[in-house]
Amino acid sequence: MRVLVVEDERNLADAIARGLRKRGMAVDVAYDGDAGHEAAFVTRYDVVVLDRDLPGVHGDQICADLAASGALTRVLMLTASGTVADRVEGLQLGADDYLPKPFAFDELVARVQALGRRATPAAPPVLELADLVLDPARRVATRAGVPVDLTNKEFGVLCELLKARGAVVSSEELLERVWDANTDPFTTIVRVTVMTLRKKLGDPPLIETVVGAGYRTAGVGA
Length: 222
Prior knowledge:
Helices cover 41% and strands 21% of the residues. By secondary structure, the chain is an alpha/beta fold. Helix 6 (152-163) packs across helix 8.
């Protein structure tokens, strides 16, 4: 899942980003409304965690512009004011959820995960291919009933490939969905991650390379 955190309190923004990354999400951070507005329309994010009172472009404007664009991106609005009137106003602007500060981090994570599931076409809660079973909610992978120990990035790549249901997923798409904006676009990290993932999954192979196009789950599709 790709998440953008737009929050001008740097310590809070960085803490949210660190916590979401530990949960396996790819997270970018913007510390003001101008940078947040630009980032939100340059990259396709699943969820934007958006502070309402931002310097530069106000959070309300970012939210309204995202809603007007028709993007599938979901918005979780944060604010120091938690009155009913403020929550209603935020939701009317196009926010999908609203969380007053201070908040429990576990609640923030749960809300981001729930919004992320709504940001993409519905996928089964558990993804399966042959004897491979992937449970994104619990971040558990097994093959033939045996647990497979995957890094966050390996898990993310495998999840994207299984959700594609046999369609080819390019390296660029995987880089955008699984890594954050700090990753070198010319890196070989996707190829290396797929290579190690194949080794961990074992035989028969479940991931195949489509030369010049990307990767797809083996034995599925044309």
